[in-house]
Design goal:
Helix content is about 35%, strand content about 25%. It is built from 9 helices and 14 strands. The longest helix is centred in the last third of the chain and has 15 residues, at about 195-210.
Length: about 270
Amino acid sequence: MLKVEPIPAFQDNYIWAIHDGESAAVVDPGEAQPVERFLAQRGLALGAIVITHHHGDHQGGVADLLERHPAGPDGTPIPVIGPAGERIGHRTQAVREGDTVTLAHPAATFRVLDVPGHTAGHVAYVGDLPGAGRVVFCGDTLFASGCGRLFEGSPAQMLASLDKLAALPGDTRVYCAHEYTRSNVRFAQAVEPGNADLSAWSARVDALRQAETPTVPTTVAHERAVNPFLRSREPAVRRAVQAQGGDVSNDAAAFGALRGWKDNFR
């Protein structure tokens, strides 16, 4: 049986640990020290490193982790899995959509989705884990109530990537890499002030953060109900974008205008 636990890093990052009580795979270790602390506290061996995209706050700790853990539980080098389309340091397996990732320590299998937009070669890892259920590790593509900035991709690419994620089963747990939820909800409410699900979620987010509890993971079904970037085709969202002077002549234009609104939202 597997558990997925957050490892807080930097100011608002989450490194995700997938473990079976003996060994752990870590997703997007931007720094090594929090991972080392987590492994020591729980008596876990490092078994694998999984990367969604090339940004330093997602892979900056890889070299230090490998120096401290030159071999995994079976005595072989620790695998480092990352997107084929990006420069990932120490990568041992380059993956793209259609590939399967099989981890030995802990035992877990994922299928890979290409989800460009935030970066050009960003990938997500989708699995059905014993004890943890359906999961997607989506890095900075989909956030709770938001999505990543378009640093390298186009609105059309990001919209297509989010459509892939939105098409996953509704109970899929969404493991994103940042605690941006409170600010994302503020923007979402500016877009859809009449969304009752969003109003309830806003109150829940405030309670979680006051208790210093993560707001993630959420689920795909939840994001479909409250996330404006998964709802950019909804009439209410289109009207709000148009009221801001945004182009809503087609899906990609409307999405791009919505993302531009968020980029400048205060």
